[in-house]
Amino acid sequence: MNSLFSNLPTTIFEVMSVLARETGAINLGQGFPDGPGPEDIRRKAAEAVLDGYNQYPPMMGLAELRTAVATHYAHWHDVTLDAEREVMITSGATEAIAGAILALVEPGDEVVLFQPLYDAYLPLVKLAGGIPKLVRLEPPHWRFDEEMLARAFSDKTRVVVFNNPLNPTATVFPREDLELLARYCKKFDAVAVCDEVWEHVTFDGRQHIPLIALPGMRERTVKIGSAGKIFSLTGWKVGFVCAAPHLMKALSKAHQFLTFTTPPNLQTAVAYGLGKEDAFFEEMRADLQRSRDRLADGLRSIGLPPLESQGTYFLNVDLAPLGLNVKDEDFCKTLVHERGVALIPVSAFYAENPVTSVVRVCFSKKDTVLDAAIEKLSGLVR
Question: Which terminus, N or C, of the chain has the lesser number of Cβ atoms within 10 Å?
């Protein structure tokens, strides 16, 4: 067996979800919505599987979806893409990330990663033979600065993996941070693999700024999006990859030998969804923001004030300022057994030197679920 995978422990996400099922706890750990997703988009997928083509679609994706992706990003981010040469469809964003890392990283290349990080990044970098160089972000603001980048970048830096908005910290990075990162990518001739699956899930009027749109980054950025996050259909696993032709040449080969293609009926439905009116996306954000505020208000009312949530399905609570002398993982395991609520310790998102005082809470749930969780947690902090 490959020791890289055989020696990996069971993820904390699986641990907490199993505990939630075994104990009947309310699961605010794993990040998925309670609802079924938009009915019209689901109906398009059903119609396409019954009445449409169900054999192998093109390896790069259906032309109608690639065109829809290019049109969507031109409208929302003012990024002009050639649908034929610069857009590819994958079986989810994780496949897109895997393909990008395998296509761009060779043994000995250094790869800059920002922690806390999505748990797939590190094993994939190591599988490709890359050497991870970690930038450690801390609460409450989760920002990076020039000194931190200077320590991570070197002449061996080949790739930067950058998640914005950032799960689990719920941070939407401002333009000045992006410009700083772009400057370092250009200085060290690095390619940025941008995991932007939460690009539409931003709050309080914030607008997502894709790194590919910044000066000098068009030719050195791989932009990755996710229909699952945009439409709250996390099980569909339809991802988008956008990159300049010289990068796409290698990216497409990696995709060809990973999944090759993606169900055509889902591609048809996502193409329809991407063309919906602006009001659909704005209402989606407003609904999630309302859920965020409901949970945040509830947590404050019981003495667990959350950190600012600027985007994603999550908000975080830092236990340290509350005087709770307990590590986040122990806190979460105690809660699921004694209070019947499952959360996620943010230390699980660190590869080394973790922050051990922050827990992540998912708010993309029904009001009744959020209210029940607050009731179960009341009286916890005295």
Answer: C
